[in-house]
Design brief:
Belongs to the isocitrate and isopropylmalate dehydrogenases family. Its EC number is 1.1.1.83, 1.1.1.93, 4.1.1.73. Has multiple catalytic activities. Apart from catalyzing the oxidation of (+)-tartrate to oxaloglycolate, also converts meso-tartrate to D-glycerate and catalyzes the oxidative decarboxylation of D-malate to pyruvate. Its cofactor is Mn(2+); Mg(2+); K(+). It is a single chain. The chain is 41% helix and 23% strand. By secondary structure, it is of the alpha/beta class. The strands form two sheets. Strands 2-1-3-12-11-4-5-10-8-9 form a ten-stranded mixed beta sheet, sandwiched between helices. Strands 6-7 form a two-stranded antiparallel ribbon. Helix 7 links the parallel strand 8 and strand 9. Helix 1 runs parallel beside helix 12, helix 10 runs antiparallel to helix 11 and helix 11 crosses helix 12. The chain binds nicotinamide-adenine-dinucleotide, 3-isopropylmalic acid (IPM) and manganese (II) ion. The site of manganese (II) ion has 3 residues, from helix 9.
Amino acid sequence: MKTYKIALLPGDGIGRDVTDAAWAVLGKASRSGDFALAGTSYPWSCDYYLQHGTMMPADGIDTLKSFDAVLLGAVGWPAQVPDSVSLHGLLLPIRKAFVQYANIRPHRLLPGVPGPLKANGFDILCIRENTEGEYSGAGGRVHQGADNEVAVETSIFTRKGVERILRFGFEQARARRGKLASVTKSNAQKYSMVFWDEITRTLASEYPDVEVTSYHIDAMAARMVMAPESLDVLVASNLFGDIITDLGAAIQGGLGFAASANINPERSAPSMFEPVHGSAPDIAHLGIANPIAAIWSGAMMLDHLGEKTAANNVMAAIEATTARGIGAIPGKDKTEAITTAVLSALG
Ligand code: NAD
Ligand code: IPM
Ligand code: MN
């Protein structure tokens, strides 16, 4: 029997509750499949930072290397640790070090979930560039505190980085409804986004079967609300992809529904699976976090590991649960009740 080694990083706040929920569901899914999941949990988090002065040990990345995948909850506890410290100390370095350049975020309405727009048939796939662009961490501040202070944050876009994420987007569009929306802001940003548009046009000739359209990020935000049925696969830079995926989450009914996979397509390092949402300090400890995004992310992990049947079973169990109205309305059901319902739907 095949055993997959999974590193669990529950992190902070509701990250812990939803990771527990996802792990319970994945455990049950593996027992009815013919594989096993061996989990090792690491307490790397803001609590860990307060005790040790770092978000993870110096050899943290090395430790994770030997796993088949990483399942993460959420990172961040801004009341005690600045976000710029916690996220740059744990989540973002993993995405970069493991070259998880394709962040896949599916947004669709689950059965029984009304969603704010009543957007019947809402079903898009966002592909977010995950290792460079606006998140490159290049820049600095001079004359700190003075009237003439300047802060610079440089976005770095490489041909290799842009080409590979666009290619990934074209492939996804080909496997779905054949439509790719490339999202930029090339009317205002004249270097990086013009570069991105040029590469999009060049690659388009290799994918004549994919209908590709370039949109500006502002117009895309409006289109996602006004005409979401006109969209299929969206590909965007790191920051733009971050923003439109919280919008996608909202349209699908709330942040508790949005799953994500940080994929290293070449499989040269582990991929990482985590909900789109954060640690939700406002509802942490209340037991009302929706675990569906984390469970769905777990299904994406099974799919990535090659356990397609188990992945489909988990998705079917999520859908059976929301179809019964359980977990469909944010805040109405407890985390535990939703998890129990998914577990029992799993049979
Ligand atoms: P957030 O996603 O944590 O919360 C935004 C809103 O959505 C809150 O009102 C919250 O209660 C609600 N929400 C989020 N997940 C939910 C769920 N599963 N069920 C029900 N409601 C849910 O965003 P934020 O408040 O901007 O960030 C809080 C912290 O999390 C910050 O430290 C931030 O940097 C961090 N963060 C981490 C990640 C990550 O680890 N991937 C992602 C986003 C934010
Ligand atoms: C996400 C989060 C992170 C991001 C933050 C917490 C750094 O918002 O995964 O969407 O912007 O990538
Ligand atoms: Mn985000």
